[in-house]
Amino acid sequence: MTTTTTTTEAAAEVAHETAKAGMPQLDFSTFPNQIFWLVVTLLVIYFVLSRIALPRIGGVLAQRAGAITSDLSAAEELKQKAIAAEKAYNDALVKARAEAAKIVAEAKTGIQQDLAVATAKADAEIAAKSAESEKAISEIRAGAVEAVKEVAQNTAKELVAALGGSDDAKAVAAAVSARLKG
Amino acid sequence: MKRKTDVAGEAQSEGGLAFHPLDQFQVQPLFGHGPIEWYTITNVTLWLALAAVAIIFVFVVGSSARKMIPTRLQSVGEVAYSFVHNMVEDVAGHDGAKYFPLIMTLFVFILFANMLGLLPGSFTPTTHIAVTAVLGFGVFLFVTLLGLYKHGLHFLGLFWMSDAPLVLRPIIAVIEVISYFVRPVSHSIRLAGNIMAGHAVMKVFAAFAPMILISGIGVLVTPVSILAITAIYALEVLVAFIQAYVFTILTCVYLKDALHPGH
Q: Which of A160, B23, B182, B248 could form a disulfide with A165 if both were Cys (CB 3.0 to 4.6 A apart)?
């Protein structure tokens, strides 16, 4: 009897040992324990994620996406503004250039008119001066011709007288004048 | 019993190397040595709780400042949020966005459990079929009931290919029904299998690492096994993420089928 009990106990022990030597995955006695704690863990994770973590992270991601979109649109707006400002600047530049050209042209015509007036005045003065000079020169020339005529008549009279010709002064003068003219 | 002695014998013949690649999956009470009841606080409880705490830290504490320019931790939460949200919207459609918190819960839970499981000495809940089956069959039940609730018997149109030749339709329907019911099985075993295999392989390589203390061949074996652990660890980090991603995107696909059963 005692031997039988010992044998049974030994057999039970051996059976237990064998079970332990096999794959622990197939030890069904631990299944309820594993399944219970797994379900508890999954429930905890599910509630923590679905109640706290996921809405929070989703919110942060949405907020960030919104911020990026609005920043991008703000940047686009600023870019348009910059383009408009550049255009305005260029327009102003073109206008200023045109104005400057106009002013230059006006100044040019003004100066040209002044110049023309001054030139005309100078020309008139010069013409008057030269006419006066010409008049003086012709007077001097006439004076000189008279003087030559007189000198020639006197010289001819003296010569005729010295050579014993008639001293008819009038005839000599006439002859000299004729010669001078010819 | 026989298997156990074999393993022990093998360990002996290897000169004292201890091979226990499956010990890391043992479910143990955290306090004392009593039997494991459904309410017992075990290492499963501890690592599930740590996953929950890590998730709360990243997603609640990290986002608490609600900064327009995020801190690093807030950024992590936002990236994960956008990643899963886009996945749900792309795969399940716009009306799937309603179920985003559920899918996000699955994704972050699997991801954090996998990643925490990569800490040396840790316990990985997602290596246990009990855990992944609850997830997989939970998704299956949820989408099936949702489909029936939303579309009534039209939901069964999912199995009836109206664009296939009439003769083939019943055959295709049978295949579709079988594949539909296999979904949760593959869905849950894929996750547990991938994670478990990686952890077990790492443990096997780790068992070879102390060879240098035992025999001369250890000069060769020890560096190789350490390099292998490093490489597999890197791979496991990738797998930890990819399996979370695969589980989540498949959930989205099933959700899409429930919301839009017409092909």
A: A160
